[in-house]
Amino acid sequence: MPFYQKRGEVPPKRHTILENPNGGIYFEELISREGFSDIYSNIYHLRMPTKVVDIGEFVEQPIEELKGKHRNRHIRTNKIKLSGDAFLGRVPLFYNSDLTIYKAHINKSMDYHYRNGHHDELIYIQEGKGRFISNFGTLELSEGDYLIIPRGIIWKFEIKLNIKALVIESYAPIRTPKRYRNKHGQHLEHSPFCERDFIAPEFNEPVDDVSEKLVRVRLNNGYQDFIYAHNPFDVVGWDGYYFPWKFNINDFEPIVGSIHQPPPVHQTFESIGFVVCSFVSRLFDFHPKAIPAPYPHSNLDSDEIIFYSMGDFMSRKGIELESITLHPSGIPHGPQPGKYEESIGKTKTTELAVMIDTFKPLKLAKSIQSIDDKSYSKSWL
Ligand SMILES: [Fe+2]
């Protein structure tokens, strides 16, 4: 995120000696994007962060594609079984060359360290409680939290109450929309959130542990295990603009108008190839002749995924909590029959939904086959 944070101990000047009071020095590591030309943080370790003892085999994680009809879909993701940890428990649903969308029903804490080497991750907590522990510090997670983990962060995830989460793995960074930031990076007055809403990690004391540790590294199409000579959570301090952070969907301040506001007012994150929007509880349009429900629309350049998180989504019927609808490009869609007219005169909506609009067509993963509501594509009759 483009604001400066500092935790623990760092030397007054970068790339200079930081003395270890127990003898010797601490070891600096630069974690940076776009070579040495973009956002970065410097972190300081008890030991060199490069001590690899052993390298495991590459384990492939191919996604089996479901070749199916081009149609609107309703996927009942609440039927996915609880299984696994925050990495291995992910079930792929939709994907293209920019992102993969998973649902994870997590019932195990990670007994290894994890790092995504090729993707940035966004985890939306639908239900449950957990603790994200990283080399930058800890974030406590609960319902409605978006957790943004840029690539390269080493982390573990502890479960306090079984978690259901929507997960995006992105090939490009995930940021807040550029139009909401000034030339210095600060969020503008008309932004639906600001820096106070973004929570950076609480710092942890360094772990001084020289027993070998497994760091599982996610790569394109699979993962590889590395055995490190010591615990990677040995950080005595860090500073910079690069770190994991969280933002709760309930801190999104909705933008409303006298007539229907289009989806960009709900935008929360941007990346290359997709955007993420938060539909939150809000007052409806106040023009005396306003129709609050959206008009039928054809998004010709995007596939639209909506995850229904809470409440009664005003334009849909027949969907359940944790349902996902896919409205692919090229097919007009809109409120189900009756919902358009029903919305007239209503003053507010109580709902939470996360929308992901992709700019390239999505492929379907075979895992959606058994939870696909086949009647949905004819639900506008
Ligand atoms: Fe839509």
Explain what the structure shows.
The chain is mainly β and 381 residues long. The protein has a domain at 249-364: Jelly Rolls, CATH 2.60.120. It is 1% helix and 40% strand. The chain has one helix and 25 strands. The protein has one helix at residues 339-342; strands spanning 5-8, 27-32, 40-45, 52-60, 65-66, 73-76, 90-95, 99-106, 113-116, 120-134, 137-141, 145-149, 154-170, 213-219, 222-228, 235-240, 245-248, 267-270, 274-279, 282-283, 303-311, 323-327, 348-349, 351-358, 363-365. Strands 4, 5, 7, 8, 9, 10, 11, 12, 13, 14, 15, 17 and 25 form a 13-stranded mixed β-sheet that branches. A hairpin with a 7-residue loop joins β2 (27-32) and β3. The longest helix has 4 residues, at 339-342. The mean pLDDT is 96. Residues 297, 304, 327, 333 line the site of fe (ii) ion.
Radius of gyration: 22 Å
Regions with little confidence, pLDDT below 50 for 5+ residues: none
| Termini gap | 46 Å
- Strand percentage lies at 35-45%
- The total count of strands amounts to 25
**Computed structural class:** mainly beta
If you consult CATH, what is the topology of the domain at 249-364? Jelly Rolls
